[in-house]
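Interim report to the steering committee. The following record documents the input for Heme chaperone HemW (412 residues).
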Amino acid sequence: MSPALPDGDAAPSDGALPPSVAAGAQDRAFGVYLHVPFCTVRCGYCDFNTYTAVELGGGASQSSYAATAVREIALGARVLTGAGLPARPVSTVFVGGGTPTVLPADDLVAMLRAVDDAWGLADGAEVTTEANPDSVTPASLAALAAGGFTRVSFGMQSAVPHVLATLERTHDPARIPDVVRWARDAGLAVSLDLIYGTPGESLADWRTSLEAALATGVDHVSAYALVVEEGTRMAAQVRRGELVLPDADDQAAKYELADDLLTGAGLGWYEVSNWARTPAHACRHNLAYWRGDDWWGVGPGAHSHVGGVRWWNVKHPRAYDARLAAGLSPAAGREVVDAEGAALERLMLGVRLAQGMPLESLTSAERRRVAGLVADELVDGRALLAERRLLLTRRGRLLADLVVRELAGFGS
């Protein structure tokens, strides 16, 4: 099962936000995340807030979901206007899940149209949907492109059948070149998502997956280390000794191989786990998260952030549908990020970016700790001196969490 919602204060039933969220809003981009909480099967490693048809039960359905999400979008427009926020067109939309493309393309387009009606889409807005390789057809991808989508992110995960089987992924790896071609023929930009560190995956297996992804000619690749969360089916398999997780050295070797092959193919890293052919091919929606911009998260369990206020929706689609049907906000709780929390988030997110962080943006205490990180070859000393920027070395990327702890004073 997916993790519990965070602790926080009760959210008002109408979703109203304090006037303070409007301060500085013109300097922050505004994006929308649309969560589609449905999958045909639940993968054993997944702890996202997703449901199969069997798990969904009565009172909510995939067929009515788009209409329910549209109600929250309309609520969001009223709430932001009521808080005094200036009109800001949506610069990025990201449809995630789950598997968004288990819904008909027309439903996804209807949700996007509602976003446009509520806030307007900026010129050149990036509009992405996630998809499984076995959940699309040439016709469905063409319909998404015609409806305003600009980008698709396929959950490739691996090109090796036994690795996909361990992950309980259902697609045939031979389908990847086909779906990439279909998407490009439709005019969509394409990203491939990979996972490394699956139990039983060798370094040669991982090389096979990377080379297969690069052979498609895509302009964006994400490569994430597998994290096995408590409560998942895979966690139970590990606990029973049925699966053995790789050690840290194995994970590091696979990250370094990914960086070598992707960089060698002309894709540069712009965030610790993401590589793009040019800055224009980077995922602008994710960059907005990492830079602390504003976004409204639509859907069960979706999280939002506007002007230092965070909130999260009820998790189950039935509860989500019921609250909106009653004219209530689906928010389950919220928090106001204090100055200390905002500073820590700034470090956690900023250091992961290839552009690094200006040295002047660090506190005096944080700057005093940088010398030790340079000595440990976690921070690039040349960039520090020549550009006065804190930039991670590749070793630092492998230990980004440690860098944050040291900078924040938690490691001393």
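The chain has two domains: 19-290, 338-412. The committee is asked to note this result when reviewing the revised timeline.
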